[in-house]
Structures are given as C-alpha cells and as structure tokens.
Sequence to fold (351 residues):
Amino acid sequence: MPPSPEFVMPPEPPARQLAAPAPAPGPPEPERHPAAHLTAEPDEPIARPRVPWRQLTAAALVGILVGAGLPSVFQGVDGAAADARVESLRSTTMAYLDAIAAGESNAATAMVPVEADAETPPDAVLRSAQRIELPEVRLTQVEGDLATVQVHYRAGGRMISRSLDAEHVGGQWRLLTSLAEPVIAHSFDGTSGITVAGVDLPPTGRVLLYPGTYRTDRTTTPLIAMGGERFDVDGDPSTPTEVYSAMDVAPGMADVAEEVAIAHVRACDSGAECAIEAGADVEMVDEPWVESVDARGAVSMMVQLHSRDFSGQTRQLRMRAVVDEAGALVGWECGDISEQGFPGAMEPCRA
Fold:
C-alpha cells in the first residue's frame, strides 16, 4: 500500500504589525519669499501728516455722541422746547381763569375778546356775583400752533368742564374761546327792566356775563316789588342762561287788596251770580299776582277769592290800584267777578 503522505502543518501567518499612528499635521510652513536685495542707499521714508490734538479730541467726541445716540440728544432738546410751550399755554390759561375768579371782567375781556355785537359789563357786575372757585387746567393738546385746553372750575354749586381753543401767535399763546355767556332776560311784561349791579340785561342776549351766581337787583315801590331772583351762569353758550323776573305787590299791599276785594264782592247786588250774603266767609287765595304796570304806575292785578257760597269754586277778580302823578295810591277799580276772571268794565270798587 502506498505510503501515506506526511502531514505537514501549515505555516503560521506572519504576526500582524500594528501600524503607527500618523503624525498630526503641523502648522503650515510660512511662505518663503526671496530675500530682498538691499541697495547701497535705502529709500527715503514716507512722511505721515500730523493731526493736531484738538482735532483728535473733536473727532473722538463726535464718535462718542454717534455711538451713544446723537438723535436722542437732539430729541431731548426738542422735548424741552415742547414742554416750555405747554407750560406757557397753561400759564396763559390760568391767568384768564384767575382774572374771572378775582372779578376782573375788563381784564378777562382784554385777554379773550368777545364778539363785536356783544359786550361784557364792567367789573362791578362780576364782583357782585359769587364767582368761580377752584379753577384749574386739566389737559392740554398741542398740534403745531393750535391747541386745546380743558379747564375745570366750580360755579353755581357744581363743577364745570370747558374746552378752550388757543393759537400760538408771535411767540405767545392766545386763547380763542371766551367764557362769557349771553344772558337773556324775560320780564313779566316783555320789557327789560331787569338789572344786575345797575346794569340792564336786555332780552336780546347782547350782554355777556362770566361764570358765577348772580342776583337781579331788587326794586320796591309803595305798590310793587320786583327782582331779587338768583340765576347761575356756567360759561357754556350751548346752555344759554335765561332770567325770569316776576313782579309782586309790595309788602302789606296784599292785605289792602284783599280787604277791598272782599268788600266789593259782599256789596255786589247786580244779579244772582254775584249776590252774596252779608258776612259770608269770603277769603283771598294766596296773594294777588301782578299783570301789568302802566306808564303812570297804576298796577293791574288778579285776585282769587274762595267761599262756600261759590259752590266750593274759586272766583277771580281783576283789580287796579290807581295812583296819582306822584305814584301814590288814590283808589281802586274792580271788574266783574267770574270763574275766568274776564275784566269786563272796570269801575270803582264798591265798599
């Protein structure tokens, strides 16, 4: 049998050689340039301009301002000017309010003129009133040379708020809105005759009054008394002030008129309508009210009478107090007594 081949161990593989780590790349070598050839005589150096230190300082300051916000600096300057304009506006407005509060009507009108067809009375009228209190400037709104000012003050027992327009002219503020308000006076006979501190208040509203609480002048004669009414002016033309003046009989005259009227009714004998028993319980209801006063001073009035003999109804009697040329009472005239008070023919009252 053939011999078996000898078993030969395979050769061992060569030991794996561990590769050494690659060295880290070093910094790039500087670029090499050929050395400059030196000449025997070196080039003349270039002269640099010298900047004075003052210019350097100014340039540095500008740089600081720009870096810090130069627009903010100028904005602060403009804001200060705006604040000064607003303060000037407030000062002008307060001077106007203070003049009214002090009763200086002429000064207030000089500050803010009124319309050409109107007038404000002298200081005496405003000083006779209970003038405004606690005046103040609340808000201001400025747009260029125009402005609006909101003012507050107390008048007539309540706080009033008004907006005043203003204009900046010639470097100063001028108010355009006046607080003087038209006052329309209504008297009992349609004429004027209503005065305040001696100044007549016409029904046309031509006379303007500043805010405050006023009282009409009280006028008393032996026959009549008129005036003394209180009225408030708030300084707002949108709420016009109207004054109504009533005329009453003078104190003590009502008792005289009642005595004459009762005697006249009791003496009536012209028919069943006015017949009344002697001693009837006729009495006057309230006081007579004045209807008119003629040029001589005679006073026409209406008297209301009540009695059970009138079926529980009141009757009205027109009467006239007759005066002489001196205005002294010399007699009475009576009309017919009726429910409506038609005058009928006036004749001397019966006694």
About this structure: DSSP finds five helices and 20 strands in the chain. Residues 1-11, 13-24, 32-49, 53-77 have pLDDT under 50 and may be disordered. The longest helix spans residues 70-101.
